[in-house]
Model the fold of this input.
Amino acid sequence: MFVGHYGAAFAIKRVDPSIPLWVLFLAVQLLDVFWAPFILLGIEKVRIVPGITASNPLDLYYMPYTHSLLATVLWSAGGAFVYGLVTRTPLARQTALWVAVAILSHWVFDLVVHRPDLPLYDDTAKLGLGLWNLPGPAFALEGALLFGGMWLYLSTAPVRRVPVALFGLVMLAIQAYVFFGPPPVSDRAAALTALAAYAVFAVVVARLARRAR
Ligand SMILES: [Zn+2]
Done:
């Protein structure tokens, strides 16, 4: 899953407005934010196999450190711990818990769309419900999650709605390109473009969230 993850970020921002939206944007993609450099360093593996799913060609055959359920729980606990340590707010514990939920949501959302390539632990007992094999419904789900979460956020947040909604449309257009455009030229290209997208999205949303209504 790609832009649908941000639906969780927007929804959690409504529940706990003290967490900066850019932090939640990185939290919901944290597993992928580390997946990309792990691919570039050869610690985890992906190969491009056109046709392996109907909507993208990623054969994610080895990613125990970022996308096993056990690793995800550890990333969630670690991320929450670091966030609590850095912010030191009166409600730090509760807030850190929401950061953990954001990180954990990545695996749950991925579970719906991935082919069985998500291990429970290490590199075994792999799960995935495979919605990527139905490009139309998979794309609709990404859009529904993104805009559903955004709607929850915009209905209470003191920000201008139109720029945020336009940003959502741009994200959805990029998602369409990923699903229906040409495959990435290599595993490294896939990792680099993903990482660039996560960074740019976090920067843009930080700027949009700062502009009061
Ligand atoms: Zn992922």
The CA atoms of residues 30 and 190 lie 16 Å apart. The pocket of zinc ion is lined by residues 31-32, 67, 106, 110 (CB under 6 Å). The two ends are 31 Å apart (CA to CA).
